[in-house]
Amino acid sequence: MLRWIDILTFAKYGNPEPLRRVEKTAPEWAAQLTPAQFRVLREHHTEPPYRNAYCRSYEPGCYECAGCHSPLFDSSTKYYAISGWPSFTQPVARQAISYHFDDTYNMQRVEVRCNGCGGHLGHVFPDGPAPAGLRYCINSESLVRVGEPAA
């Protein structure tokens, strides 16, 4: 189980190695992704709160990166956080996510990216539920829900 101190350590000293890397050019990403997915995943934008696909969806399954289809979150870790975006307590694996300090918009946050393709997912905050206290606040446009929860 990851804790806030683990997140800060990764952001400061280096992230875990991904299981696989996916590298494409901007035109290749643009051809593969919808315009909204491209804005979020490749240009680091944020979708509008509450008006997104997975904000109020709690169906079982695994949430994968919309860019490279790497498994990111299991539906069993999703919870209602009143944030306007899907919120999760833990990634499916330690090496699924990379962490980066983000001081845009005069805020100090930790950005989360898919560790496989580097796509922007959202941010993680230390105000989630026990036991780890993490809230991964993720853009729906960066996710695809598939089948059954990860084993």
Could you please describe the fold and organization of this structure?
With 151 residues, the protein is of the alpha+beta class. The chain has one domain (4-15, 23-146): Peptide methionine sulfoxide reductase (Metal Binding Protein, Guanine Nucleotide Exchange Factor, Chain A, Beta Complex), CATH 2.170.150. The chain is built from three helices and nine strands; from the N terminus they run αααβββββββββ. It has helices at residues 4-13, 26-32, 35-41, and strands at residues 62-65, 71-74, 78-79, 87-88, 97-102, 109-114, 120-125, 135-138, 143-146. It starts with a helix and ends in a 5-residue tail after the last strand. The mean pLDDT is 95. It comes from Hymenobacter chitinivorans DSM 11115. Its EC number is 1.8.4.12. It is an enzyme of class 1 (oxidoreductase). Residues 26-148 form the MsrB domain.
Keywords:
three-stranded antiparallel sheet; 151 residues; single chain; six-stranded antiparallel sheet
Number of helices: 3
Question: What's the number of structural domains?
Answer: 1
CATH class, please? Mainly Beta
- Helix proportion: 10-25%
Spatial ordering of strands, largest sheet:
3-4-8-7-6-5
Listing every helix as H and every strand as E from the N terminus to the C terminus, the arrangement reads: HHHEEEEEEEEE
How large, in whole angstroms, is the Cα Rg? 14 Å
Unreliably modeled segments: none
CATH topology name? Metal Binding Protein, Guanine Nucleotide Exchange Factor, Chain A
Proportion in β-strands? 25-35%
Structural class: alpha+beta
Number of strands: 9
CATH architecture: Beta Complex
Query: Major sheet: size, sense and barrel closure?
Result: 6 strands, antiparallel
CATH evolutionary superfamily: Peptide methionine sulfoxide reductase
